[in-house]
């Protein structure tokens, strides 16, 4: 029987990796469908809003990576126990997402000098501002980003923060040992460790 | 007794208006705290991530407008009935939020010629692409953006889409009668109608 879930994305980690981690963590079978770069133009027309990832389930197709991850987090019990707890998680996820959004124009910049300027600004205005604040939150939260326990906020950070390093060419968490420990903690969960060892290789 | 909730934002509608609508819809008393422009620098230091809105409740303070709105939507019964329904709502909300994100660089652009170019690109690449797709969704969903009934996705659209008009100086929904009807339907709910008539005046 085909798996009940199909996750469609490009052939890289990107913003779909949070959901892949959540599937693996929960031991939920899914089809890890990867659209190759050359096939994307013809795929794009068939998507609801010209974007991936998409989650397919029960004949329905849904876009938006964070919305999909939140759904899966509920499924695998990495969400909050009530609406307020979910608010605390969502607040962290959207804060990390705001940082990620700032990477987008850098990824698109072809000119190497302008790219370097954008990276310097990102580090100065965003990383130097946001990362110490997130580090302090982990310090107060028993080594996690929310609720003093493992939640999908940690999964989101563990899968998104590697992009910070990839785009800047630096170890962006070098001065933030507690944030680095959050990432390591997620990466060392047995199901995740196994996934990282066996997943398709990609640059980001 | 002071209200159990305090919503802190600037003295305008912006991204906090969704939450104000949700409070009003649910008849939930809240302190509508508005930081004046000249007081923002000293306020900023006291916020978790240098941003508003903030929701204060039970001695806790949380940032991120969409996360706050989702929490309030659950409180006032405008969320889904299960995790999949919430995914359908979240997917729409984040899609509308993606459009809103594209307004940010236009708001910051001081040069009128460059601003005009950015607006033309926004209309051509985003509005002309996303709005017909959202219009088709409303058509299939009984006149609503999700689940065939009133949800906070409609509230989000009703409060965010006026920014499309404000920033472009155009009636951006002119060709999308079903989307316009969604906005009107929300605005004409008795509690919302009353709020719109009495809320502090602001440009956006």
TrEMBL record, chains A, B:
All copies of domain GST N-terminal, residue ranges: 3-80
Q: Which domain of life is it from?
A: Eukaryota
Keyword check for Transferase: yes
Which SUPFAM superfamilies does the record associate with it? GST C-terminal domain-like, Thioredoxin-like
Please list the reactions this protein catalyses: RX + glutathione = an S-substituted glutathione + a halide anion + H(+)
Where does the record place the GST C-terminal domain?
82-204
Q: Name one GO biological process term.
A: glutathione metabolic process
* One Pfam family from the record: GST_N
Q: Which GO terms describe its molecular function?
A: glutathione peroxidase activity; glutathione transferase activity
Q: What EC number(s) is this enzyme filed under?
A: 2.5.1.18
Cell membrane recorded as keyword: no
> Which controlled-vocabulary keywords does the entry list?
Transferase
Q: How does it assemble?
A: Homodimer.
Q: Which family does this protein fall into?
A: Belongs to the GST superfamily. Sigma family.
What's the name of the protein?
A: glutathione transferase
Q: In the record, what lineage is assigned to the organism producing the protein? A: Eukaryota, Metazoa, Ecdysozoa, Arthropoda, Hexapoda
């Amino acid at each position: 029987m085909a798996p009940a879930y199909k996750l469609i994305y490009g052939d890289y980690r990107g913003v779909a990796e949070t959901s892949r981690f959540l599937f693996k963590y929960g031991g939920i079978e899914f089809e890890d469908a990867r659209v190759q770069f050359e096939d994307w133009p013809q795929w794009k027309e068939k998507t609801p809003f010209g974007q991936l990832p998409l989650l397919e389930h029960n004949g329905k197709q849904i876009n938006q990576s964070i919305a999909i991850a939140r759904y899966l987090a509920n499924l695998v019990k990495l969400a909050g126990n009530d609406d307020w707890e979910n608010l605390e998680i969502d607040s962290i996820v959207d804060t990390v997402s705001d940082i990620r959004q700032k990477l987008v124009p850098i990824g698109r910049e072809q000119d190497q000098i302008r790219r370097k300027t954008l990276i310097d600004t990102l580090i100065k205005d965003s990383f130097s501002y946001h990362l110490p604040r997130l580090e302090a939150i982990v310090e107060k939260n028993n080594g996690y980003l929310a609720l003093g326990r493992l939640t999908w906020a940690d999964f989101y950070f563990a899968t998104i923060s590697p992009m910070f390093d990839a785009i800047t060419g630096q170890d962006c968490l070098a001065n933030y040992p507690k944030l680095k420990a959050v990432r390591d903690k997620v990466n060392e969960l047995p199901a995740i460790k196994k996934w990282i060892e066996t997943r398709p290789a990609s640059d980001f």
